[in-house]
Design a protein that fits this description.
Layout lengths: L7 E2 L2 E2 L20 E2 L4 H20 L1 H12 L20 E2 L1 H15 L1
Helix pairs in contact: 1-2, 1-3
Length: 111
């Protein structure tokens, strides 16, 4: 895949919450995370958020536009204050519980 589709910068992809391209509304990546705990539940929440955004684009343009502004903003810190190693393995590291709560809140906002 061409690196431009993953918003590649500094040897890593830059996607909002490691899911959403800041410009494209029809390109999503689920599972591009290295959680410090289980992954499958987080990927489920990621895909729920993707589905909510897709639906909002058609059913609630105001909510979709608010989300577009979020995904175009700088990436939030997903480590919840934990200092992970600066290595390729940790480029997509997320702190499980705070990341899950962030996803759940966004799912609610798009509902």
């Amino acid at each position: 895949m061409d690196k431009k589709y993953l918003n590649w910068n500094n040897n890593r992809p830059h996607l909002y919450l490691n899911i959403f391209h800041p410009e494209y509304d029809n390109l999503f990546v689920a599972g591009l995370i290295q959680p410090d705990s289980g992954q499958w539940g987080l990927v489920d929440y990621q895909t729920q958020l993707i589905a909510k955004f897709i639906c909002a684009q058609e059913q609630n343009p105001d909510k979709a536009n608010k989300f577009r502004r979020l995904k175009a903003a700088p990436q939030p810190n997903l480590s919840h204050g934990i200092k992970y190693l600066d290595s390729t393995r940790h480029y997509v590291e997320v702190e499980h519980f705070s990341y899950r709560e962030r996803l759940k809140k966004l799912i609610e906002k798009l509902s």
